[in-house]
Amino acid sequence: MRIIISPAKQMRVDADDFACLALPVFLKKTEKLKDWISQLTYEQQKALWACSDKIARQNHERFAHMDLRRNLTPAILAYDGIQYTYMAPAVFEDGQYAYVQEHLRILSGFYGVLKPMDGVVPHRLEMQAKVSACGYKNLYGFWGDSLYREVRDDSGIIINLASKEYAKCVAKYLQPEDRLITCIFGEPKGDKIVQKGVYVKMARGEMVRFLAGIHADESEQIKGFNGSGYHFDADRSSDTEFVFVRKKIAHHIEQKLDEADAAAEQSTVRYAASEVFGRARSGIDRNEKE
Predict the structure, then answer these.
(1) Whole-angstrom Cα distance, residue 254 to residue 152?
(2) For tag attachment on the chain, is the N or C end more exposed, with fewer CB atoms within 10 Å?
(3) SS3 label, residue 103
(4) pTM, full prediction
């Protein structure tokens, strides 16, 4: 069984606390992307990244001096977004690191597929970016079916905790014997399930931590997840979609989480939004007890 997740836009460097175990499997292809991006003008790079001047300047400098084999940070610790904050890999126990190294795969527009302890450098490149490197129209064409082939193991079971833009890199190439299970996190509203971005990211991170904590190796074990007040909804679920629901949270907590999401998006410092997250987390916990 394999688990797929998306990367985060923000990244950090920590070459001292944890040793990288290997280089990314598709590093040669990553070098081609690096060379293509490096030869673009600043204006072209900024358009490619679709970001602010501050973030564009930061990444322009990164690509100008990028060395893909030095000053590396393990991928699972390098990405600095909401999902990774709630996964909290920095405080994993030894058994959890071994679990995610075997079962978890991070999909990346720049690196293709990453094992958690693969060494990476800070970069910015979303899968939907309009990259025309090596004669391809976009990154989906550039990577082709290589991400699917690298992610799949002998079980053929893939637990999808990735966003749609990344998940389709794998889903497009599924074979009849494969089983892709997408986890849905939301709040019931009539006959529908409403999913909100920041809550989904939080739940995905907590789900990875939960699976690593119990060393899950069967899809049925996923149904035991109850983080942040979610519970498995058998009536709304199917063989390919596991639906987890919870009560709608208070409006003031929702505002705090939206504030945290915006702060994390703009920050260049790890856990810069942690104080906001902490207040929101406390509010959620109180709300669940009431």
Answers:
(1) 36
(2) C
(3) helix
(4) 0.86
